[in-house]
Amino acid sequence: MSNGTPNNDWASKVTFIRLRDIIEIVPISRATVYRLAKNGQFPKPIRLGSSSLWVEAEVQAWLSERMANR
Fold this sequence. Notes:
Structural class: alpha+beta
Mean pLDDT: 89
């Protein structure tokens, strides 16, 4: 049932991370992150103004998939 206010529950559950965080988690270069994302082999960033942010769960899922396929 809606009371006229938007439901923003999803926003409180999404965690965004920056490129520097990705590079700490996955030891690949900045250029490799962007190249893989461009080729559809890594989650694409969300652009907010001049910032690029990634959904943390998508990056974790990508890493988990790589670990499972080793």
